[in-house]
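Milestone 3.1: sequence recovery, worked example.
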């Protein structure tokens, strides 16, 4: 039994590797996972949520360069590896944009940048400045209206999108597989009740249902997980129900009943493992859908809340720049959503072909 299962998955992996689109999608997903895990080490702005606000340089175009004077903040300290990996590193120094600077014996004299052609003189004691008092930074994707680095927020936002997708898929699979398996295995009155619930949920527009759950639970990070997850289980339940109805009539299930196995053991250990192919395909599709729904909720203001760098929230904060001088502020997170969703769709299509799901359905 185990040997046959291994052979099936090995042959499926070989077929998947031959699908260039699926492998490209898998590569992009792995890159996104790496960025999500180590985003605070990769981002130019490693502060929590990449939320370093410098109002003087707000709304700048990609490639913008500026020198900064680093002035020590009071009450800040360093962080360990895992703390930085999870939460970022609080800034030890305040970043003051400058137009020019010079040093004297005991102080640093700068022209603090306020706006184009506008500056003011500022003197800072050398004891309060960083060991390297002035640094130059390039904002490769520009800055938003608050002067935050768009590239850094895109990188940290990858973690938000993948987290929402992962937790949503886990919730939808747990609820959908449980209800679908019960409906398909027992049929009769149980099936009618569960199918009635599925049809009711199915008839409500997804976004409207998410709004209702979000208003009930409140706005926030974890509420988005639950709201989106509880709206996507119906697809899983319908699929699992149909697969269980077919599989329960096979001989190995009948043999399990004859041997006296309990219904729960037959469902969990014998039926569900043999219908995982279609479930994996729909899980990949749900992952992509969850990313889009979360972005839409954040854009409408009922999803992830500031200062967390959700891609949808970034579009909301900067969409007015599309028709002005700096459209990249809104287009960059839009492209990020498009690429990640495309990656999951390509991978899901490849899984469908590799696992021969269409033949099973």
């Amino acid at each position: 039994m185990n040997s046959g299962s291994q052979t099936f998955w090995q042959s499926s992996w070989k077929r998947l590797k031959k699908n260039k689109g699926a492998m490209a999608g898998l590569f992009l997903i792995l890159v996104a996972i790496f960025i999500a895990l180590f985003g605070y080490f990769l981002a130019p702005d490693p502060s929590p949520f990449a939320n370093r606000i410098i109002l003087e340089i707000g709304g700048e175009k990609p490639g913008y360069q500026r020198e900064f004077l680093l002035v020590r903040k009071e009450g800040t300290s360093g962080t360990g590896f895992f703390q930085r990996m999870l939460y970022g590193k609080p800034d030890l120094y305040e970043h003051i944009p400058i137009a020019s600077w010079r040093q004297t014996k005991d102080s640093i004299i700068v022209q603090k940048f306020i706006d184009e052609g506008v500056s003011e003189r500022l003197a800072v004691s050398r004891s309060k400045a960083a060991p390297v008092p002035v640094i130059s930074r390039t904002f490769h994707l520009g800055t938003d209206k608050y002067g935050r680095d768009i590239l850094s927020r895109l990188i940290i936002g990858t973690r938000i999108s993948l987290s929402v997708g992962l937790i949503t898929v886990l919730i939808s699979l747990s609820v959908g597989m449980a209800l679908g398996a019960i409906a398909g295995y027992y049929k009769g009155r149980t099936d009618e009740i569960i199918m009635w619930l599925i049809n009711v949920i199915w008839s409500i527009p997804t976004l409207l249902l998410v709004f209702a759950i979000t208003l009930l639970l409140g706005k926030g990070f974890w509420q988005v997980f639950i709201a989106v997850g509880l709206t996507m289980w119906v697809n899983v339940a319908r699929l699992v129900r149909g697969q269980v109805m077919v599989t329960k009539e096979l001989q190995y299930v009948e043999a399990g009943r004859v041997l006296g196995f309990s219904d729960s053991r037959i469902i969990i250990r014998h039926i569900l493992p043999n219908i995982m192919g279609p479930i994996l395909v729909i899980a990949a599709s749900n992952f992509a859908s969850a990313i889009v729904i979360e972005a839409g909720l954040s854009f409408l203001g009922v999803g992830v809340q500031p200062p967390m760098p959700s891609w949808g929230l970034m579009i909301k904060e900067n969409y007015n720049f599309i028709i002005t001088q700096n459209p990249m502020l809104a287009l960059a997170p839009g492209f990020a959503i498009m690429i990640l969703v495309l990656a999951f769709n390509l991978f899901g299509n490849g899984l469908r072909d590799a696992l021969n799901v269409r033949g099973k359905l």
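The two ends are 22 Å apart (CA to CA). The chain has two domains: 2-34+151-360, 54-147.
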